[in-house]
Amino acid sequence: MADNGVEILLIEDNENDEMLALHAFKRQNIVNNVHVVRDGAEALEYIFCTGAYADRTIENPRLILLDLKLPLIDGTEVLRQIRSDPRTRFIPVVVLTSSSEERDIVETYRLGINSYIVKPVDFEQFNEVTKHLGYYWLILNRQPAFVNGLSPASISERVST
Question: Which of 60, 71, 62, 70 is nearest to 114 (CA)?
Answer without folding.
Answer: 62
